[in-house]
TrEMBL record:
<feature type="domain" description="Glycosyltransferase 2-like">
    <location>
        <begin position="3"/>
        <end position="154"/>
    </location>
</feature>
<protein>
    <submittedName>
        <fullName>Glycosyltransferase</fullName>
    </submittedName>
</protein>
<dbReference type="Pfam" id="PF00535">
    <property type="entry name" value="Glycos_transf_2"/>
</dbReference>
<dbReference type="GO" id="GO:0016758">
    <property type="term" value="F:hexosyltransferase activity"/>
</dbReference>
<dbReference type="InterPro" id="IPR001173">
    <property type="entry name" value="Glyco_trans_2-like"/>
</dbReference>
<dbReference type="InterPro" id="IPR029044">
    <property type="entry name" value="Nucleotide-diphossugar_trans"/>
</dbReference>
Amino acid sequence: MISVILTHYNKGLLLNRTIDSLQPEDENLHEIIVVDDYSTDPEWPTNYQYLLVNYPKVKIIQNTDNKGPAVRLNQGAFAATGDYLFFMDSDDILAPNRLNMFLHEMQKQQADLCYAEKVKIHDLNEIRKHTTGTWESSTTPLSYVLENNIMQMCVMCTRELFLKSKGCNENIFIQDESLALNLAKYSQKIISSNLHSVFVLLDENETKAIRGENRLSRHLAQQHHDMFFTIDDFIRDYLDLNEQDKKLLTKKALSTYWKSIRHTPQKKFSDFLMYLAAQINPIQTWNKHHQKLTIYFNQLNPVRKINQRA
């Protein structure tokens, strides 16, 4: 019934820990699809075979080139056969029984989209402290996602919704923002819980020795570039956005520009004035400075650019 999609690139045995946290023996878990983005880890071929032998529900999609998490997440989701799809990062940890909880609540509330909290911890024992939470729902999912700044990878949706939305924007390297926006645009009802469900373990030794630089969260330039163009593409694709949603989107894009430039030698006082103007009238500010912003993010380095934008 539930297909879990994990995109994988050089995560080592952290991937195995993630799979274990999904409780793969659960009867409602139909399959775990691991999409490998051409890992270069010399230990990966051995672990690949280990996973296939020891986890009957694991299906691994191997690739011969590196395309990034947005493309690979879509690849896994389009291959999934479950009625519900759950997405999370392949080095995080899911708290016990969360998949069944999400499934039960989605069916109970007749929702096609579900989000729960993703948080950082320093000790695995902290997971046991998080057992209760409250649920909210909305029949205007896009507005809800924008107002609550939802973009974390702790999301379940119906397979039907994913296919309708077409998932991630494959012109962007990092998937988070585009997945949330596209799913919300086509969703009929979203539910969200403040219950901490997916955990990022910030163990000092693990972070330095195992994850190293293979963490997209470290690459702020990539985050800023992909955030801006995700919003830019979304506004171009959906001309029917209501004014409030467009205000929230343009304000976020303009704030992303300020975050990207404020600690660089390129920063000018006019950039700060633009940021202030965006707080008052984001759409007008966006329309006035759109070309300048596009040029800036096109030239931003070092980032992985799928397409050069006009």
